[in-house]
Amino acid sequence: DAIDHFTLGGSVRWQLTPKVSVGPEFVFMRGPGDDRDVFLTGKVIVDFMPARLVSPYFVADGGAMLHGDRFVSGPYWSSEGAVSAGGGVRINVTPRLSIAPEFRIGWEPHMRIGALVTWRP
What we know:
Elements (H helix, E strand, L loop, with lengths): L5 E6 L2 E2 L4 E11 L5 E12 L6 E18 L2 E19 L4 E11 L2 E10 L2
Antiparallel strand pairs: 1-3, 2-3, 3-4, 4-5, 5-6, 6-7, 7-8
């Protein structure tokens, strides 16, 4: 069953080529009760049509996940590797501002459906 989470994160991207960028990503997820997840990963993004106003892209990441919850015996924390992959569509609102609906699936088993807001200086 799906467990809804409030999700907030941030990342930095460095352009390797006009279509490929890499960078770290930090994501915090708050689930029901004391369910918490923190992801720290490195990601790669392939932007298929970077010069266009609307561009589909592929994203993959890998790193670590820290999971916390509370059980009868008290708080519990664990960590393990995490990977995900998926894609989205970047839509340029202005030359510096874009939004991107995105879908990812990964391990620790999860699916993420979200939207990114990107600001380029």
